[in-house]
Design brief:
191 residues; alpha+beta; 21% strand
């Protein structure tokens, strides 16, 4: 845990530290760290991921100005399919956000019931924090924090609660959100 805190404070200087300050055999390689990070919880639908905790460690060494950021909610189209996740030993690909009311009513009319566990995802909506000021070393920063899988429509109240919960968690980890942006998709206007 202490080593992870220390790495988070390096702000991209890990290779320099590994090559110039410590002998290479005492500090793990980037690939070793990447393998460890595959065990980090970051599945779709999770409101809080381990990345928020890691970002909190990084924020401990940031200046007050560098802690100012923008929360960007972005959506991208997916090819709907069930995919096997080796980490969780399960299939993923279904929605994590309830459908909109009209589409739920349509499903009930067509099938006699609404089964969210059978609805495939057509979009992924992610939260990315973007620093408004560069780090002390001059590098800009951004951090992916989580995503939700949505169908052709989604419940805007659910997404709004998810964004508000993310804002609370980000503030609790010492960062200051100065703005929230979303693209101009018609589905996002209701949020």
């Amino acid at each position: 845990e202490m080593f992870i805190r220390w790495l988070a404070r390096l702000h991209g200087s890990y290779d320099y530290v590994r090559g110039h300050i410590f002998p290479k055999n005492l500090v793990a390689t980037r690939r070793c760290l990447q393998k460890k990070l595959t065990k980090v919880s970051c599945g779709a639908g999770e409101v809080v991921t381990d990345f928020v905790r890691f970002l909190g460690y990084k924020a401990e060494s940031m200046s007050e100005q560098t802690k100012c950021c923008n929360l960007n909610v972005d959506e991208m189209t997916l090819s709907p399919a069930y995919v096997y996740d080796a980490r969780t030993q399960s299939f993923v690909g279904t929605i994590t956000v309830p459908l909109g009311k009209k589409l739920i009513q349509k499903r009930i009319k067509e099938n006699g019931k609404y089964e969210p566990e059978k609805e495939l995802a057509y979009h992924a909506m992610s939260i990315v924090l973007v620093g408004l000021c560069a780090l002390d070393n001059g590098d800009p920063w951004k951090q992916w924090l989580g995503c939700q899988l949505t169908g052709y429509s989604f419940c805007p109240a659910f997404v709004a609660r998810w964004i508000l919960q993310a804002i609370d968690i980000i503030h609790a980890n010492g960062l200051y959100i100065k703005g929230v942006t979303m693209d101009n998709s018609p589905a996002n206007l209701a949020v």
